[in-house]
Specification:
Number of strands: 0
CATH superfamily of the largest domain: Amino acid/polyamine transporter I
Pfam family, one: AA_permease_C
Subcellular location: Endomembrane system
Main location: membrane
Helix content: 55-70%
Radius of gyration: 26 Å
GO molecular function: amino acid transmembrane transporter activity
Protein name: Cationic amino acid transporter 3
Length: about 600
């Protein structure tokens, strides 16, 4: 009896949902063209909080080389976006990443994906915008709000929390208003002012410049309020700073999800008689264009900011108005602060909507409490999911530092978007579920026919069969056996790439300087990863291709996994600790409630461990 209970418990952990065929219906989304998708992608990616983020990264992590950090982040997000496009075509849903994890890896991994989307990505994103708005509003009052709150609450706050509870940010999350159309004004003015009032010498700073900035009246010296100098110049914190900056800037490009969701609605739900509009071209092209535009904007604003102000003197909380003050444009700084306030309020809508939908999807599947899936009659709004996720976002904005929230978002985004290429690797090589029974019957009949004349194979024959199975591409269509091979190889590949990224992140100088131990380990991991990748490539792909296919499979998904994991390794220990605490809370909810109330009994499916 105990063995049976353990077996049932394990089957629940790896239970997978079936992909249901989509039914056509008329939708105005079918009228979207490439230009429409680009506008959607750019509009959902550009938000005013990115300017505060750029200042913090430039001041403490990358310096003027933040431009290169944005380039690395943009290329990495493009790789993930292409994988997300295929998943969105297979699973056209507002929570397609969560659902694709359910389909690919089973219930436990789906819960991990959805749970870690709720806090580090959706909820923390809302809190991050709220903190940025609070900083901008505080600057208009001459910092009187922060000074008053800090003097009142600072003594009672633990060291790992913010210096004071941010009631302004809490109130903002609960009471937000829509302001739109102001982002372009901010961008245009900052780009113009940066190249008018900027100084190229700020990209060539030396220790003498730093000492001059730290020198006070009467020959005193104080570096208070200044960021670190590093080695000066354009790349003051080296290649490590560029990678760490790219890891933190990665989530700024996550707006491509809108292109995928809207574009795949065009593919899966076309107007009858009109058909879809070349998804193989429209989705990747619009995604690449929108990411490129956002890269130009973010890097342009960062260049303007570091042109106007030395990177170690930028204000990490209110950079743009303070930069205008630094160059003598005081009236413009106040106008800029008001405009940023309005733009940040508008930016709150996206994450607030997304996190409520993700919470509702998980609760509807029974993985979270059923009350969170309650729909308000008449409006169809998941009221409990919206209120609970909004309250959690307000709590984060109230207590935690802006920089800690940003790191938590970036880690969650990178982890979730690593699941995308993994899911593509697994799903593309899986057989059609409807043909599984026929295949099992066929295999049994073939075995029974061979049994009378078969003899016990020798070890050479066994080795030959294994190599032929791994490298020989025996069948033109995937089978359950080839699907299991692809699944196992994908898991092994993630482990190998994680180990390789850890070695490169912890001991980069020893690896590239020729240290015998570190270099040998890195080369061995690289060779093994290449061998596993070739094994996946040799397996037959599914007979029914999705409307959009990732090019260069399996190289592109493998490259995406490696880049994302390597950027994750740039995060601090404290960020990983926060992420671990949130994950532990999630596991307690899942094993205490979700695993007993999920809907796995309504649609029996072979467990993911058999794939």
């Amino acid at each position: 009896m105990r063995c049976q209970d353990v077996l049932q418990f394990g089957q629940k952990l790896v239970y997978r949902q079936l992909l249901e065929p989509a039914e056509e219906y008329e939708s105005h989304v079918a009228h979207l063209n490439i230009l429409d998708l680009v506008v959607l992608g750019v509009g959902s990616t550009l938000w005013a909080g990115a300017y505060i983020m750029a200042s913090a990264v430039a001041m403490h992590i990358a310096g003027p080389a933040i431009i290169i950090s944005f380039l690395v982040a943009a290329l990495s997000s493009l790789l993930s976006g292409l994988c997300y496009a295929e998943l969105g075509a297979r699973v056209p849903s507002s929570s397609s990443l969560y659902l694709s994890s359910y389909v690919t890896m089973g219930q436990l991994f789906a819960f991990i994906t959805g749970w870690n989307f709720i806090l580090p990505i959706a909820t923390a994103d809302t809190a991050c915008v709220a903190k940025a708005w609070s900083y901008a509003f505080d600057s208009l009052t001459g910092n009187h709000i922060s000074q008053g709150l800090q003097s009142t609450f600072s003594v009672h706050m633990p060291y790992f929390l913010a210096a004071y509870p941010d009631f302004v940010a809490l109130g903002l999350v609960l009471l937000m208003t829509v302001f739109t159309g102001l982002n372009l004004l901010v961008l245009s003015f900052i780009l113009l002012s940066g190249f008018i009032k900027g100084d190229l010498h700020n990209w060539q700073l030396t220790e003498q410049d730093y000492n001059s900035a730290a020198s006070g009246p009467n020959g005193t010296y104080s570096s208070e309020g200044l960021g670190p100098l590093g080695s000066g110049g354009f790349v003051p914190f080296g290649f490590d700073g560029i990678l760490r900056g790219a890891a933190l800037c990665y989530y700024l490009f996550s707006g491509f999800a809108v292109i995928v969701n809207k574009g795949n609605m065009l593919i899966v739900f076309p107007i009858r008689g009109k058909g879809a509009r070349n998804p193989q071209r429209s989705i990747p092209l619009s995604m690449a264009i929108s990411i490129f535009i956002c890269f130009l904007v973010f890097s342009g604003v960062s260049a303007s900011l570091t042109f106007m102000v030395p990177y170690y003197q930028t204000d990490p909380y209110n950079p743009l108005p303070q930069a205008l003050l630094h160059v003598g444009w005081a009236p413009a700084s106040y106008v800029m602060a008001v405009v940023i306030l309005c733009a940040l309020l508008y930016s709150l809508l996206g994450p607030m909507f997304f996190m409520s939908r993700m919470t509702y999807a998980m609760a509807d599947d029974g993985l979270l409490f059923r009350e969170l899936a309650r729909i308000r009659a008449g409006t169809g709004t998941p009221i409990m999911a919206t209120m609970s996720s909004g309250s959690l976002a307000g709590l984060l904005a109230l207590l935690f530092k802006f920089h800690d929230i940003v790191e938590l978002i970036s880690l969650g985004i990178l982890l979730a978007y690593t699941i995308m290429p993994f899911s593509v690797l697994v799903l593309r090589y899986q057989p059609d579920p409807n043909s599984s029974k026929n295949e099992n019957t066929k295999n049994k009949s073939e075995i029974s026919e061979r049994e009378p004349s078969s003899s016990k194979p020798g070890p050479e024959a066994g080795t030959s069969n294994v190599l032929k199975l791994l490298w020989g591409r025996v069948n033109t269509s995937p089978t359950q056996k080839s699907g299991r091979i692809a699944y196992g190889c994908a898991l092994l590949l993630v482990l190998l790439l994680t180990a390789l990224s850890l070695v490169l992140a912890q001991w980069p100088r020893r690896v590239f300087s020729g240290d015998p131990v570190c270099t040998t380990v890195a080369v061995l991991l690289l060779v093994l990863s290449a061998g596993v990748t070739v094994t996946i490539w040799r397996q037959p792909q599914g007979p029914t291709p999705p409307p959009f296919k990732v090019p260069a499979l399996p190289v592109l998904p493998v490259l995406s996994i490696f880049v994302n994991v390597h950027l994750m390794m740039q995060m601090t220990t404290w960020t990983w600790a926060q992420f671990g605490i949130w994950s532990a809370i999630g596991f307690a909810i899942y094993f205490g409630y979700g695993i007993r109330h999920s809907l796995e009994d309504t649609d029996p499916q072979p467990p993911a461990s058999n794939s």
